[in-house]
């Protein structure tokens, strides 16, 4: 019998607890409806965060660097999930 596993990764900036106009970025990992939140220990200016895309806005060096870090984190988390799955 096959079991169905669900897996998702969501990134968001905690704008409610922003200090000095900068919010911490978190990753939420969901596996089979169980959640775990992880802080990425990175800050982003609230005005540069796009909540619909879950990425930093713009093409500045800071925005590109942050988006690249988010992509790398996504890849690492997905690889870990694949490793643990088998």
TrEMBL record:
The keyword DNA-binding applies. The keyword DNA-binding applies. It holds the Pfam family Arm-DNA-bind_5. One of its GO terms (molecular function) is DNA binding. InterPro entries: Arm-DNA-bind_5 (IPR035386). It comes from the Bacteria. Keywords: DNA-binding. Residues 13-85 form the Arm DNA-binding domain. This is Arm DNA-binding domain-containing protein.
